[in-house]
Design brief:
The structure is a single chain. By secondary structure, the protein is mostly helical. It has a single domain (about 1-129), classed as Rossmann fold. The chain is about 65% helix and about 10% strand.
């Protein structure tokens, strides 16, 4: 089965359908993934950038941005490159639960998993560590 590494723009065009020609191509790509003809590989960097763009550039509330990304992750032929999908879901849930950005939620998760301390001046993150 062919694997495709999906970039942020592919995710955004699919989620937003704001540029018709690109949405059509992104939708075709996701149709191939959903049908099992292809596997969609996504980096956590792309997840981070997608959530940031939805929140900051497209003015979507963070909970909505995370929810939309979680729906993409529910596709069985979507794989996360760096970590297990279930771990990413936990990080995304913590983004909403603690009202922090994805990067901070990831640092919090990796810090606890690897038993590392986090150096930060971010008051929300400091309160969680």
């Amino acid at each position: 089965m062919t694997s495709l590494i999906l970039d942020t723009n592919t995710l955004l065009r699919f989620l937003l359908a704001d540029i018709p020609s690109q949405y059509k191509k992104a939708r075709a790509t996701f149709s191939e993934i959903e049908s099992g003809r292809k596997v969609g590989d996504i980096s956590i960097l792309v997840i981070n950038e997608t959530i940031w763009a939805l929140d900051k550039f497209y003015d979507k509330p963070i909970a909505e941005a995370v929810s939309v990304v979680q729906k993409l992750l529910s596709l069985k032929n979507i794989k996360i490159l760096e970590i297990e999908k279930k771990e990413l879901v936990q990080i995304l849930n913590n983004t909403i639960k603690y009202k922090i950005d994805f990067t901070d939620a990831y640092l919090l998760w990796i810090g606890k998993k690897e038993d590392h301390k986090i150096s930060t001046f971010d008051k929300k993150l400091q309160a969680l560590i």
